[in-house]
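agent: user wants the structure for Inosine triphosphate pyrophosphatase from Lipomyces starkeyi NRRL Y-11557. delegating to structure tool.
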Amino acid sequence: MSKVITFVTGNTNKLKEVQAIIADSVELTNKSLDLEEVQGTIFEVAEAKCKEAASIIQGPVLVEDTALGFTAYGGLPGPYIKWFMAKIGHEGLNNMLAAYDDKSAQAICTFAFSEGPGKEVKIFQGVQDGIIVPARGPVGFGWDPCFQPDGFDQTYAEMPKTLKNTISHRFKALQLLKEFLVTR
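agent: tool returned. relaying tokens verbatim.
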């Protein structure tokens, strides 16, 4: 792809992960925008953010929405995890599940891409199953210290970034995006 894509995020940790995973095949620039957080499904949230970003940037954009869904809560907090983390933190996430035997969760990353204003929005989603555990590892990147992916004995926060960036929900979504960008 010859055009530079603007990845719209103010989260430096997300930016670093995305660059580490796809910088070899996609030319990215970054811009932080205060986009409206609509209520709806993960797909509706990502699509709305992408359309708004494309309108502001006036060119190719990539936006990301991350969700964390608890099985015991039917997939909630889902795309609203950012707001839950801001209000109740890691301990609060664990407290939400204290009354449930089922601590399973899905980490869901949804990227939305558009060539620009009025262009179709393409959605790419990656899912990683896991469990919610008491916070372990460095804090500072959302709910990573509380999410232990299936098949591992470490939380995302405890893992070396090189490992996380080959198994995470974000990695899985970005692999689909890369395939799309390379084959179009």
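agent: one observation worth passing along. The helical segments are 12-22, 42-57, 81-96, 161-167, 169-183.
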